[in-house]
Design brief:
Shape: flat
Radius of gyration: 18 Å
Order of helices and strands: HHHHHHHHHH
Mean pLDDT: 84
Largest sheet: none
Strand content: under 5%
Oligomer: single chain
Number of helices: 10
Length: about 250
C-alpha cells in the first residue's frame, strides 16, 4: 500500500518546481530585456506586457516554495533565500513599471540582481547528492525555455498574426534543442533514453509542430504559442516526476 503513495507525494513538489522554474525563466527574460533596452520607446510601448509578465512571474515563482522546502539543509536555506530575493526584486521591477524612474541606474541594477537571484534559485533547487551529470545546466536551460514560452505566448495574445507570429520560433526551438540535448547527455543507457523520449516530445517535438506552421498561417499564433508554452510546462513537470522517480 505504501508503494503508490510515494509517486503521489512527488506530484506537489514536482509541480511546484516546474511552475517556479518557469516563473524564474520569465523573470530572467523580462529583467534582461529591460536592462538592455532601458527607457527606449519600444519598452514604453511594451509596458503593459512587462507589468503583466512580472505579475505572472511573481505568482509562478511563489509556487516554488513547496519544492524548495523539501530540500535538505543547507541547500534549503540557500534556495529559499534566493527565492525570497527574486520575489523582492520582481516586486520592485513591477512597481517600476507603474512608477518609472527615467535616467536612474536603479532599474538596471535591480533587474541584474533579480536575474542572478532567479537563476540562483533554479540552480540551488537541485540537491547535489545523487544528482545526474549536467543537472544544474539542464535545470537552467529548462527554466529559460519555459520562461521564453510564456513570454512569447503573452506577445502572441497581445499581437496575434504577422509579423510577430513566427519570429521567435528559431530562438525558441534552439533553446529547446539545447535543453533536450543537455538532459540526454546527462542520462546513460537505453533505459534513460527511453525515459527521455516523452519529455523530449513535450519540450521540443510538439512545440515545433505548433509554431513552425506559423510561417504559413500566422493567424494561428494566438493558439499556437500558448499551446507551445503549455507543452513545455507539461514537459518540465514530466521531467521533474521522472527525476523524482529515479531518485526514489
Amino acid at each position: 500500500m505504501s508503494a503508490p503513495a510515494r509517486p503521489a507525494r512527488a506530484w506537489l513538489p514536482a509541480a511546484a518546481d516546474a511552475l517556479g522554474s518557469t516563473g524564474a525563466g520569465l523573470l530572467v527574460w523580462l529583467a534582461v530585456s529591460g536592462a538592455m533596452l532601458g527607457s527606449a520607446a519600444p519598452v514604453q510601448q511594451l509596458a503593459w506586457l512587462r507589468m503583466g509578465g512580472f505579475g505572472l512571474g511573481l505568482l509562478l515563482v511563489a509556487c516554488a516554495l513547496p519544492a524548495l522546502w523539501t530540500l535538505p539543509a543547507p541547500w534549503r536555506g540557500r534556495a529559499v533565500l534566493a527565492w525570497a530575493l527574486a520575489l523582492a526584486g520582481a516586486g520592485v521591477l513591477l512597481a517600476l513599471q507603474r512608477w518609472p524612474l527615467p535616467g536612474s541606474p536603479w532599474p538596471a541594477l535591480v533587474a541584474t540582481a533579480t536575474t542572478l537571484c532567479a537563476l540562483a534559485m533554479v540552480a540551488a533547487a537541485q540537491d547535489p547528492a545523487g544528482a545526474p551529470p549536467l543537472a544544474v545546466p539542464t535545470r537552467l536551460a529548462l527554466a529559460l525555455l519555459g520562461g521564453a514560452g510564456v513570454l512569447f505566448a503573452l506577445l502572441a495574445l497581445r499581437w496575434p498574426g504577422a509579423p510577430l507570429a513566427a519570429a521567435p520560433a528559431p530562438a525558441f526551438l534552439l533553446l529547446g534543442v539545447l535543453a533536450v540535448a543537455l538532459r540526454l547527455a546527462g542520462r546513460h543507457g537505453r533505459a534513460g533514453l527511453r525515459g527521455s523520449l516523452p519529455v523530449a516530445a513535450l519540450l521540443l517535438l510538439l512545440p515545433a509542430l505548433l509554431v513552425l506552421p506559423l510561417y504559413a498561417w500566422p493567424g494561428w499564433s494566438r493558439i499556437a504559442w500558448p499551446a507551445a508554452a503549455l507543452s513545455v510546462l507539461a514537459g518540465l513537470l514530466a521531467e521533474r516526476l521522472a527525476r523524482a522517480g529515479n531518485d526514489g
